[in-house]
Amino acid sequence: MGRLSGKIALLTGAASGIAAATAQRFADEGAAVAGLDVQQPDAARWKRVEASAPAASFHTASVASEAQVKAAIAEVVAQHGGFDILINAAGVAGGGALETLEEDEWDRIVGINLKGIFLMCKHAVAPILARGGGSIVNIASIEGLVASEAATPYGASKGGVVQLTRNLAVDLTHRGIRVNSVCPGLVETPMVEMVTSATEGPLAALKEQFIGNHLMRRLGQPEEIANAILFLASDEASFVTGSTLVVDGGWTAGARTDVDLLGA
Ligand SMILES: NC(=O)c1ccc[n+]([C@@H]2O[C@H](COP(=O)([O-])OP(=O)(O)OC[C@H]3O[C@@H](n4cnc5c(N)ncnc54)[C@H](O)[C@@H]3O)[C@@H](O)[C@H]2O)c1
Question: Which of 59, 60, 181, 201 is the most exposed place for a label (fewest CB within 10 A)?
Answer without folding.
Answer: 201
